[in-house]
Amino acid sequence: MKKREVQASVKDERLVQKRRDQMIKGAVALFKQKGFHRTTTREIAKAAGFSIGTLYEYIRTKEDVLYLVCDSIYDHVSERLQEDLAVEKGTLESLKRGIADFFQVMDEMQAEVLVMYQEVKSLSKDALPYVLKKEMEMVAMFEELLTRCVENGELRLTQKQIELVAHNIFVQGQMWGFRRWALRKLFTLEEYITMQTEVLLSGIQNGVSGAVTVPEKG
What we know:
By secondary structure, the protein is mostly helical. It is built from 9 helices and no strands.
């Protein structure tokens, strides 16, 4: 999917990325504390470490910053999972690695994830569908990992089961991000990853042998 363009007057792409990363970091803290609507672009500029004039060299609106927060999450997840797709061809090991990578990104970007879901309603009508489609593309990456496992004989799943399991993985990763405050009292991140993966794979492998086959449409 083509990125939604955020216009910048600066032409140096590396500098644009550096400044936007600074913006994202400063904005996330402010959005989490004050909310999107109560945060001003001047406050975002100050938190990022530069002037309001400099800020507007890299974005056009405050909404652009929220959009960049959402898109950065997708980019991190995409980069991690694409590595797993490239290195391993349809093995349970690649699936486990993909799950672990996703959960780790949710941990590393917990503040961004929380802000995204709290403030996504503030995005414009053209930006919101883009962000939601990005989320579905992340789910689709897990569908691809699962499909490769099926094609390689590592798992036996129908297409509908693949789609459901992919959504389950995605929600389990989000749960760590949303409820880390409580879960960290019970598990380390590594323990959470191990236990959720074991439960997931046990459910797939035990369920398939005696499962009711979901009929395909058409």
